[in-house]
Specification:
The chain has about 110 residues and is α+β, with helices and mostly antiparallel strands. It is about 25% helix and about 25% strand. The chain has a 4-stranded antiparallel sheet. The N and C termini lie far apart (about 25 Å). This is ASCH domain-containing protein.
Amino acid sequence: MTSFPEKTCSIERLITHPKLVAAAIAGLKTQQRRHGVYGFPGETFKLGEVSFVITDLQRQCLGDMTEEHAKAEGYDDLESYQNIILKMHAGMVWNDEGLAWVHSFVRQT
């Protein structure tokens, strides 16, 4: 059994930006990186009328992100992902050693 730390925020706050909500609903976004834990594997959440289930939760260094990961986040490439993250978090510096919780999810049918 895998143990995770306590949640740092509600699962309803996992994906909030309208562009990212739309990407998840369209099936273009299947991961969300957060500084803390927002949901656990098996837990469900809704975006509009669409339900999703978290399938995996892993800790990852930002420097381990790949182009594939950026696409799973709903972006065209890693550079686009990095640029928007730095714009959203004023004063943040991209640190390859920085850690994030990767919430992977799928749309429920």
